[in-house]
């Protein structure tokens, strides 16, 4: 691996010659900008605004833009007078526990390689001291024209250095957390713990960049004149109606993916429960089983009594109707007989008169 910086580690009065090597590499696929009509490359050229011409790298220097837009030229000679004792030295300033370092501060990672045979002894001494103390070293160093903060730790048999952001370069998480007050109960926490336990751990070496692999397949297909492979549509995420049901389903799905059979309570609880709909009117208060049976008996008795009353009323009505019809028929027959008698009397009287 090619070194990007040569210097020394200052460990008290001990000086360890080292070489700085990149510990990471960028494996992402990069694209060039092209003209879509003819496929020509799009390039950026460095042009002087005053002379309106392209300039070479040797003609380019540094300048600081003031608040009013004025450019103040800064030369390499001006920078050489800066009080930068760490220009070629990684100066260890303290040893602290690893958990004192906020992961938000971590930046680029490097390996520190011993610079020759004379550096092997002090290099090994520093490495073993870090191992036994179970601490990390905080150091200052200069790289690419500025002083930086670093953390030294042991990785296998080598010393690695992580570039750290200065504390004032890390933003506070203001306005990020939810403003709404939310209460989480113990059952929800238990389900979340069960989900974490079910998912378990994973070897980070097994993870890979699936997007980059798919992109490589697309590039290879286009280069061969073939149609790019079709990507399956992602599953549509359903609406989370109940957090508990979502957690229960997640635990069940995680167990099934690992070949474990969910227990009977989990199968029963894994059914999605919809939230109850809001009612516009107040519901009647619930009654106990004893009150319900008593009320049922009273209702049945009331129905029986009303049925008897209606039957009695019907019978009375029938009797009244029959009595009325009998009275009417009697009156009719009496009227007829009276009429006959009067007719007979009239006839007799007429005969007598004749």
UniProtKB/TrEMBL annotation:
Residues 52-181 form the Ku domain. Residues 251-354 are annotated as: Disordered. Keywords: DNA damage, DNA recombination, DNA repair, DNA-binding. CDD domains: KU_like. Gene3D superfamilies: 2.40.290.10. Homodimer. Interacts with LigD. Belongs to the prokaryotic Ku family. This is Non-homologous end joining protein Ku. It comes from Streptomyces caeruleatus.
């Amino acid at each position: 691996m090619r070194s990007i910086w040569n210097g020394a580690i200052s460990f008290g009065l001990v000086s360890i010659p080292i070489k700085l090597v990149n510990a990471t590499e960028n494996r992402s696929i990069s694209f060039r900008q092209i003209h879509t009509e003819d496929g020509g490359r799009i390039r950026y050229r460095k042009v002087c605004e005053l002379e309106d011409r392209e300039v070479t790298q040797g003609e380019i220097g540094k300048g600081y833009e003031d608040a009013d837009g004025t450019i103040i030229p800064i030369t390499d000679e001006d920078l050489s007078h800066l009080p930068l004792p760490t220009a070629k030295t990684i100066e260890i300033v303290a040893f602290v526990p690893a958990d004192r370092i906020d992961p938000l501060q971590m930046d680029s990672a490097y390996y520190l390689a011993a610079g020759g045979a004379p550096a092997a002894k002090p290099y090994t001494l520093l490495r073993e001291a870090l191992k036994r103390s179970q601490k990390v070293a905080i150091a200052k160093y200069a790289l690419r024209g500025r002083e930086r903060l670093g953390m030294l730790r042991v990785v296998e048999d080598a010393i690695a250095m992580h570039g750290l952001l200065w504390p004032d370069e890390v933003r506070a998480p203001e306005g990020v957390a939810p403003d709404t007050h939310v209460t989480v109960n113990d059952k929800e926490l238990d389900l979340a713990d069960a989900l974490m336990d079910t998912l378990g751990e994973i070897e980070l070496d097994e993870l890979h960049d699936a997007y980059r692999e798919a992109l490589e397949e697309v590039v290879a297909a286009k280069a061969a004149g073939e149609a790019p492979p079709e990507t399956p549509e992602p599953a549509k995420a359903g609406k989370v109606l109940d957090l508990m049901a979502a957690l229960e389903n997640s635990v069940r799905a995680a167990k099934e993916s690992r070949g474990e059979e969910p227990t009977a309570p989990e199968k029963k609880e894994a059914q999605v429960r919809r939230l109850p709909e809001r009612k516009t009117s107040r519901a009647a208060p619930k009654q106990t089983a004893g009150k319900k049976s008593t009320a049922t008996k009273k209702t049945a008795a009331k129905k029986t009594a009303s049925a008897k009353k209606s039957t009695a009323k019907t019978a009375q009505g029938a009797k009244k109707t029959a009595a009325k019809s009998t009275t009417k028929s009697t009156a009719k027959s009496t009227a007829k007989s009276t009429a006959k008698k009067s007719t007979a009397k009239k006839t007799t009287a007429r005969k007598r008169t004749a």
